[in-house]
Amino acid sequence: MADFAEHRKALFCNDAQSIADYQSAMGEAVEAVSAWLQNEKMYTGGSIKALRKEIAFQPSKEGMGVQKSLDRMVELFLNKSLKVHHPHSLAHLHCPTMVTSQIAEVLINATNQSMDSWDQSPAGSLMEVQLIDWLRQKVGYGEGQAGVFTSGGTQSNLMGILLARDACIAKNWKDDNGKPWSVQRDGIPSDAMRNVKFVCSENAHFSVQKNLAMMGMGFQSVVTVPVNSDAQIDTAALAKTMADLKADGKIVACIVATAGTTDAGAIDPMKEIRNIADQYDAWMHIDAAWGGALILSNEYRAMLDGLELSDSVTLDFHKHYFQTISCGAFLLKDEANYRYMHYEAEYLNSAYDEEHGVPNLVSKSLQTTRRFDALKLWMTVEALGEELYGSMIDHGVKLTRDVADYIKATNGLELLVEPQFASVLFRVVPEGYPVEFVDNLNQNVADELFARGEANIGVTKVGDVQSLKMTTLSPIATLENVQNLLSLVQAEADRIKDSIANGTYTPPIA
Ligand SMILES: *Cc1c(COP(=O)(O)O)cnc(C)c1O
Question: Could you tell me the sign of the dihedral formed by the alpha carbons of 346, 347, 348, 354, in that order?
């Protein structure tokens, strides 16, 4: 039987041995990460087939000990992980991270504060509230505390859509006592299920649909509007959709605008959308999970004009803000709208505490136990200063424009959408290559380069066309880096094109 001393040693606590083990193992972990960073390869885990053979969980009664386990994790996990800072890692909105974010994580993890009540995060609660206030001012909402850190864009979007629905139903339905209907208490009125709608562009993030399905409204409650050639919502089509829905007896609870669509980086025209939403008394939620980084921009802040007109907004710091996962926020313009999700748990947020101004963050969040992710952003802003931070964000926007020009000027590469923010949708089209094989070729080029650890390029669709995607948000990537990558893409296409055309090609993923 393990004894009490062993428990103390294993637990992270004030035991002298526990502290000594923590210091030495953390030192080793940091050493291992540093060695991993110095390996120039983007990825060394191989294809999914190769990797699957090696990954095996090995629980035992005795345990292998911390040292052996750490060595094993370095081999099994660290050395087989994608390097997100590598200039060829640009498939997703998956960012390299700040040193400050790494340091803050050590403090966040070690203290394990939880944001659901003040007594579980005394300093942290007060810090988060101040950061929310600062973010509100950056967005243009004005001072206040209505908002909360979240696990990311999906959760922030859920909060916006949920509050919009419940506000809409409270406005348009009465309960048996003639009072505004409370969805929180009474559920969704049966005729609201078919009549309450949510409108967004066809390029809005899929979490809009997914969230509404979870909210019991189904995908059927989402009405999508076509986009223009810049991948932004077509406002004439939006106006028509709104009019048609009204004529059909539907009530639009919310228009979801996107500031930075996940693929094209398109920013919907926010002022025009606000005008249309006002004509129908609809909530406007802006999903700025990606484009929201421009609130710190030195040069491109104007691209977000109109953000302040929204009723709620989604921000994501684990994208173009270079924070470690998870780190996001939800901001609500009018604090009164939080009433639709207020819940009093005597042990967490008593009326007594609220009377005395004790921060009550559990009422503002869908989560109960919650990480103090706000520390990462706080520390980064304070340490770097807004100017350096802003210029790191701006770098990606500029780089993207240069990359697009380069693609346009290069034979064998085709730009599919004019970039607006920090992503490039393009494809490789070798001269004289049969059109029917071009889609497959692009998919296979991306898979090959990943399996060989050379590059992580995204694969998506633009209309019906198979597209490659580069998210060029890295503050340390150069045009030369991207040019080298594009040369790899073209060389790889040349290498495999003939074997695809004659049917002898085996993709690395198969
Ligand atoms: C990434 C993204 C989301 C989802 O955010 P998560 O943090 O991944 O949950 C939502 N909307 C947009 C526009 C995004 O780019």
Answer: positive
The 8-class DSSP code of residue 430 comes to -
**Which residues make Cβ contacts (< 8 Å) with residue 57, sequence separation at least 6?**
none
Nearest Cα to 415, choosing from 406, 90, 19, 460?
Answer: 406
Residue 473: helix, strand or coil by DSSP? coil
Alpha carbon nearest to ligand 1 atom 4, residue: 153
CA of 471 to the centre of ligand 1 (A): 14
422, 265 contact by CB (below 8 A): yes
Q: In what order do the strands lie in the sheet with 222-225?
A: 147-150, 328-332, 312-316, 283-288, 251-258, 196-201, 222-225
Position of tokens 């540093």?
A: 34
**From 262, 294, 323, 460, mutation site for ligand 1 pocket: most ligand atoms within 8 A of C-beta:** 262
Q: Is 57 helix (H, G, I), strand (E, B) or coil?
A: coil
**DSSP per position, 357-377:** T----GGG-S-SS---THHHH
**Backbone dihedral angles phi then psi of residue 90, each to the nearest 5 degrees:** -145, 35
Report angle CA 18, 19, 21 to the nearest 5 degrees. 65
Atom 7, ligand 1: residue with shortest CA distance: 152
CA angle 358, 362, 364 (to 5 degrees): 95
Q: pLDDT tens string for the chain (510 positions)?
A: 568 999 999 999 999 999 999 999 999 999 999 999 999 999 999 888 889 999 999 999 999 999 999 999 999 999 999 999 999 999 999 999 999 999 999 999 999 999 999 999 999 999 999 999 999 999 999 999 999 999 999 999 999 999 999 999 999 999 999 999 999 999 999 999 999 999 999 999 999 999 999 999 999 999 999 999 999 999 999 999 999 999 999 999 999 999 999 999 999 999 999 999 999 999 999 999 999 999 999 999 999 999 999 999 999 999 999 999 999 999 999 999 999 998 877 777 778 887 888 989 999 999 999 999 999 999 999 999 999 999 999 999 999 999 999 999 999 999 999 998 999 999 999 988 888 889 999 999 999 999 899 999 999 999 899 999 999 999 999 999 999 999 999 999 999 888 877 888 888 776
Residue burial 251-263, b: 16+ Cβ < 10 Å; e: rest: bbbbbbbbbbbbb
pTM of the full structure: 0.96
Tokens found for residue 443: 């998919």
Least Cα distance to 294 among 323, 327, 259, 264 occurs for 259
Return the best residue to mutate from 157, 205, 321 for the ligand 1 pocket (most ligand atoms within 8 A of CB).
205
For the chain, give the number of residues: 510
For 424, the enclosing helix (H) or strand (E) is: strand 423-428
Among residues 489, 295, 375, the alpha carbon closest in space to that of 125 is found at 375
Token couple for 508: 């690395």
Alpha-carbon gap, residue 454 to 82, rounded angstroms: 11
